[in-house]
Amino acid sequence: MPGISLANTIAQLNAEDEWGPEITSSTTLDGVPYAPFSKGDKLGRMADWTQEGKEGRDRGQRYGRGYRDQQVFGAGTSSLFAVQVAEDESSFSVVDNTRASTKTRGFGRGGGTVFRGRGQRGAAQRGGRGGFQRAGQGPQRPGQGQYYDQRGGARGGRGGRRFGWRDYDKPQRNRDSSVTIRPGWSMKEEIDFNRLTKLNLGTADGEDLDDYGFLYYYDRSFDKPPIKNTERRLQSLDRAAYNVTTSQDPVLQQLAKDDEATIFATSDILSMLMCATRSVYSWDIVILKQGNKIFLDKRVDNTIDLVTVNENAADAPLEADTPNTQNNAQTGVKPDSINTPGNLAIEATMINHNFALQVVQESQSAKVEMSHPNPFYVASEETEPLASKAYKYRRFDLSLETDEEPFNLIVRTEVDAVVKNNISGDDQHLIVKALNEFDHKAQGAGGALDWRTKLASQRGAVVATEMKNNSCKLARWTTQAILAKADQMKLGFVSRANPKSSQAHIILGVLGYKPRDFANQMNLSLSNGWGIVRTIVDLIRSMGADDEGSDDRKFVLVKDPNKPVVRLYEVPLGTFEEDDDAITGTMGTDVGGEAEDE
Q1: Residue 467 has pLDDT above 70, yes or no
Q2: Is residue 157 located within the same domain as residue 264?
Q3: Neighbours of 226 (CB within 10 A)
Q4: Residue 13 region, left (φ>0) first, then alpha (ψ -120 to 50), else beta?
Q5: Burial of 490 (0-12, 13-18, 19+ CB in 10 A)
Q6: Are strands 293-297 and 284-290 parallel, antiparallel or unpaired?
Q7: Can you tell me whether residue 413 is helix, strand or coil?
Q8: Are 510 and 492 within 8 A, CB to CB?
Q9: Predicted confidence (pLDDT) per residue in 322-366, tens digit
Q10: Rounded to two decimals, what is the model's pTM?
């Protein structure tokens, strides 16, 4: 109503309907909140108790603090007080629950949509060349996982993970166990690697008990770089070599009868247990408890004797596809591929056998005889000459301060050759091993350099890459050298003559290391390995006799094929005994395989 003030209007309504604020002599409305208005607006509502705070916040965010001071008082609020005659149906809308027609691809890990391709200027949702960006994620500052360069492409910054080509579409690696877990087996303990890495036991260097076999001298010409434009082919030599398990070793059996120690093992089995936390593939160790004696044994067709290839690589070699493989787990590797983990392990084992025989000078007049002849060689039954090999039986003290009696371990160690010291002229024992390159461009190579062009100029980078990709294998070799008290390790670098064939190989070079120094470079702790051995043995000893009162028990320690976990199973005493004849038949090992001999 024109000409009538708001105070008079309120006073009249209050007097008639007894509604509104208390009537006072003052005509002002101090302290009463009401919406702003102008005299030209139609009065539809008396006051809006919520609009002022919300409107003020919105205006402050859009225009800053001085927004209200810059506007005409009450302007723009007429629509808030307009009387709506009917319900406005335009404010309602139907929600579309159907999926968008455009298909997106998600990461296999973490989710999120991936956009790939060449980056465009100003494009915020397409990654740069080789980059990526997740859907719904805006630009970020450098140091927050991604950053955007001037070309508009997203690149990985600090804290972010750079994905490789088709990294989101990699198949799930489900490896098989090295031994089939049978229904009658009883699991006694499950230990994860985090617990094993915290174990520690200081042990002395050990003492020599006896030695067997003989050694040839190492050929120093292999230490020199090969002459340019010439190739040194790896030869296949027929020599009798033995790798007998603990329970079949006559020397260890006699030492057990003489009560010389409590635990008995071979260096290849013991090194696998001591370096268990570095392993990725599955393996198993048979543990025999006979009275108060414990034997660390191995099965026939075990995986401990095989030399793995790139086991610790981030992109390890893939298994071949089988007809029963699910479509979502296809690896793309053909069944007849020579670059599967199993075929590579057989090839590497063959290379190590032949390389150790080739780098020695076979001379009957210049060889070092041990105290006793080879305990496994029977001249009347063998037709092939013996390989250069010496077996050293050594004893280590694993006793604790709380032990009432000595707690000793006897291990059979091996050395491959002998060499004259340049200064003192004394004979030094060598461990000879070989690293092999199958194809530096193939899947599973682990980012290795081309040995033919980089071994001479970037030797440190080549060795560092091998330490990363073959951490478990090199740790086992170093542990075996330290257990044998070898003076040096000789590591050969052998590559395929043709990357597409695993039959012919070339020796590219040989490097020598001291075992202790090499262990420090690899961050290898022998005290942690001894702690693992003592823990497993104490676990076996704590079980005592079985339900029938017998002290003879058998266990199997199995590394899980897909998890960093080891499990201890108790198995019947007759388990694996059906393969005893096969064990005796494979005491002599003849590994060949080179297609061409020189």
Answers
A1: yes
A2: no
A3: 16
A4: alpha
A5: buried
A6: antiparallel
A7: strand
A8: yes
A9: 655 444 456 667 777 888 999 999 999 999 999 999 999 988 888
A10: 0.69
